[in-house]
Amino acid sequence: MKIAILGAGAMGCLYGAAFHRAGAEVLLIDVDQAHIDAINAGGLELETRAGTEMLPIPALRPDQLDAPVDLVVVFTKTFQTDRALGGIAAAIGPDTQLLSLQNGLGNDRRLAEHAAPERVMVGASTMPSDLIGLGKVRSHGEGGSRLFPAFEGEADFAVRVADLLTAGGIPTTADPAIHQVIWSKAIFNAAMNPLCALTLRTPGFLFLHDESRDMIRTVVDEGVGVARASGVMIEAQPIHDLTHVSMTDHANHEASMLQDVKAGRRTEIDAINGAILDAAHAAGLSVPVTETLYRMLRLQDAKIST
Ligand SMILES: NC(=O)C1=CN([C@@H]2O[C@H](COP(=O)(O)OP(=O)(O)OC[C@H]3O[C@@H](n4cnc5c(N)ncnc54)[C@H](OP(=O)(O)O)[C@@H]3O)[C@@H](O)[C@H]2O)C=CC1
Ligand SMILES: CC(C)(CO)C(=O)C(=O)O
Questions:
Q1: CATH topology assigned to domain 180-305
Q2: Ligand 2 neighbourhood includes 267 CB (under 6 angstroms)
Q3: Which of the four CATH numbers 3.40.50.10490, 3.10.310.10, 3.20.20.150, 3.40.50.720 does domain 2-176 have?
Q4: Which atom of ligand 1 is the closest one to the Cα of 253?
């Protein structure tokens, strides 16, 4: 299978490495020329709990992709998706499948702007990953992914993709309840990521303080209420459990939103807390802690653009 990873940052490199280990033909696509050059010069350096690997995966700029691939895996930030897919139009042929494992809500809709709905797959990942330098990624922690066609597509291709990732070291399943999975992950991120970004601390710090643990519990309960009012029937306890795993097993992982704030980049607050807030308004619900965190991160983002 020929796979283009669109956005060779922390997660793109981690997933590109798994596809590569499983024998797929992988191309890492990014806009950062220095990062591309570093990968092409010495290989992708991936540090996990199992050790450090140097993987000879080619990296390219979007304009260097000139023929259709079988699968595009989108791992840009959510607000970069549309532009990034527009930049690789030549790689999206009539049979090309698109997959997003990005955080947040609405990724299905964003991908369906660039391919027929039956060729759009979505999902979520609980793998942690940090970009630690040019051509260098670190992932310390267990996790996995779930994916499935977003709309009415056939499950066969999703199963093949999941099997490849599992063979490459990221346990992945094709899960028909994918929209419940995505809502649960978005609620988890709405609770964890803004608090990491605002305190400039990792989940282990949040575990030490009643203030953060209380807010995390409340945001999860608020989000589950919104999901259920929107017709997505999920339970709160598995999400509470996931926040506990994050604060203990992934205690030192820099949540992606923390990585963004530290690097002076815009965050994905609109696709996470903002999307839950929009759904709350549509359902006539109030979600005060989710909304406060949303407003705080919007202010943080405003510092970058002003
Ligand atoms: N990091 C993590 O642990 C996790 C992240 N996620 C989600 O995965 C997604 C990716 O996150 P993450 O890997 O951390 O993000 P990164 O910022 O590390 O990676 C995104 C990459 O995409 C590149 N990019 C931007 N625009 C384009 C474009 N037009 N064409 C090609 N590449 C482009 C960026 O370059 P540049 O920096 O120059 O803009 C960057 O290298 C997000 O939705 C995130 O929420 C999900 C689970 C865990
Ligand atoms: C790694 C994980 C699951 C937890 O923080 C994440 O989604 C993120 O960093 O955005």
A1: N-(1-d-carboxylethyl)-l-norvaline Dehydrogenase; domain 2 (1.10.1040)
A2: no
A3: 3.40.50.720
A4: 3
The mean predicted confidence, pLDDT, of the chain is 96
DSSP assignment letter at 266: P
Q: Copy the structure tokens of residue 71.
A: 């699968």
Q: What is the pLDDT of residues 69-96, one digit of tens each?
A: 999 999 999 999 999 999 999 999 999 9
Residue of 5, 31, 83, 304 to test ligand 1 pocket, by largest number of atoms within 8 Å of CB: 31
Q: Is 259 helix (H, G, I), strand (E, B) or coil?
A: helix
Nearest CA residue ID for atom 3, ligand 2? 126
Q: pLDDT tens for residues 208-235?
A: 999 999 999 999 999 999 999 999 999 9
CA distance 136 to 114: 30
Half-sphere exposure of 261 (CA within 13 A, CB side): 22
pLDDT tens per residue, range 27-71: 999 999 999 999 999 999 999 988 999 999 999 999 999 999 999
Listed as own residue / partner, the contacts of 175-178 with beta carbons closer than 8 Å and 24 or more positions apart are 175/123, 175/146, 175/147, 175/148, 176/148, 178/122, 178/123, 178/146, 178/147, 178/148, 178/149, 178/150
Distance CA 16, CA 232 (A): 31
**Stated pTM of the model:** 0.96
Which residue CA neighbors atom 24 of ligand 1 most closely? 7
Structure tokens belonging to residue 269 = 């607050």
**What 3-state DSSP class applies to 276?**
helix
